[in-house]
């Protein structure tokens, strides 16, 4: 991602809030059951959330022939101890199904090895895929999930100056080299790129890339069902991949909306957003009524911030 670790933390939280608002209505969307701080021996301190995702309209046609529409009602638990996070997704209909996403965020451009500490057996089974937010997908899930229309080769943030994302943008994040005035150095650089050896160059100079960071996601899925388990696994993996692309495209595409926000402001927006989500889904779980949301934010500046955010998801800025 073409941003710093600190910027990404804010970008991710803002993106999650806005995408949840956009995808939630009276029948489908996201319901927030819990959102609280936690502390344990594994992650230390962080934020715990429990959510229900109702995704009936996103189900592939073949799945609807063997399961009811509520088969894509998912229960999610997440532990966010940034820069480490873990998400576990289960399905009440397919009780044996589980999907786990373990994420490590690092200030590099994808060159770290085995950041999740896998053993040899796990490494042998692992499949590595590099996701480029500037790519264009054409499979079923990309059409079902994608809604943004950012043109990143022409996109430039007015607030941060980040962008555009040209071909090979991961390499282009390198700052000016002390040898940049050397024609020999430039000639070698161009030859490396033209010879498709830019990966080796990135490996050598990764520590100098600024600003850039990588979200290393380890996705583990298990659907032990005879006859359709493998197909279900592949469908959901493809769905997660498309969601990763879309959500991270939005992280960058919405940069002028979140850039400059503090973590305190983001947490306040998150609490307000939870109230809005549960109102949209026609069920308030943690809050007894909408007045509880009002009582949380009494200052006029906070109320203005709340109104600005609640209206923002209705505006298409792409």
UniProtKB/TrEMBL annotation:
- List the Gene3D superfamilies hit by this protein, alphabetically: 3.30.530.20
Write out the GO MF terms. Answer: phospholipid transporter activity
Domain (Phosphatidylinositol transfer protein N-terminal): residue spans on this chain: 1-272
Per the record, a Pfam family?
IP_trans
- Source species, domain of life: Eukaryota
What InterPro entries does the record point to?
PI_transfer, PI_transfer_N, START-like_dom_sf
What is the protein name given in its UniProt record? Phosphatidylinositol transfer protein N-terminal domain-containing protein
Provenance organism: Gossypium barbadense (Sea Island cotton)
């Amino acid at each position: 991602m073409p941003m710093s670790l600190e910027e990404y933390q804010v970008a991710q939280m803002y993106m999650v809030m806005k995408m949840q608002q956009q995808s939630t209505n009276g029948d489908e969307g996201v319901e927030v059951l819990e959102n609280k701080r936690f502390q344990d021996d594994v992650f230390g301190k962080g934020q715990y959330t429990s959510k229900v995702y109702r995704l009936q309209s996103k189900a592939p046609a073949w799945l609807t022939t063997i399961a009811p529409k509520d088969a894509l009602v998912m229960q999610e638990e997440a532990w966010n101890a940034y820069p480490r996070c873990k998400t576990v997704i289960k399905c009440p209909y397919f009780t044996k199904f589980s999907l786990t996403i373990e994420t490590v965020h690092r200030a590099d451009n994808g060159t770290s090895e085995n950041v999740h500490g896998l053993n040899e057996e796990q490494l042998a089974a692992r499949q590595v895929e590099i996701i480029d937010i500037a790519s264009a997908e054409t499979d079923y899930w990309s059409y079902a999930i994608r809604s943004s229309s950012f043109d990143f080769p022409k996109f430039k943030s007015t607030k941060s100056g980040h962008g555009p994302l040209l071909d090979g943008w991961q390499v282009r994040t390198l700052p000016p080299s002390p040898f940049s005035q050397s024609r020999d150095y430039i000639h070698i650089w161009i030859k490396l790129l033209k010879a498709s050896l830019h990966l080796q160059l990135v490996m050598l100079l990764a520590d100098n890339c600024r600003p850039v960071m990588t979200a290393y996601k380890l996705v583990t899925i298990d659907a032990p069902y005879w006859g359709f388990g493998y197909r279900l696994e592949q469908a959901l993996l493809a769905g997660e991949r498309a969601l990763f692309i879309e959500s991270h495209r939005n992280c960058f595409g919405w940069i002028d909306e979140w850039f400059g926000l503090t973590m305190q402001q983001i947490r306040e927006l998150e609490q307000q957003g939870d109230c809005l989500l549960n109102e949209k889904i026609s069920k308030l779980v943690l809050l007894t009524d909408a007045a509880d949301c009002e009582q949380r934010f009494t200052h006029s500046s906070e109320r203005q911030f709340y109104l600005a955010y609640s209206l923002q998801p209705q505006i298409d800025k792409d």
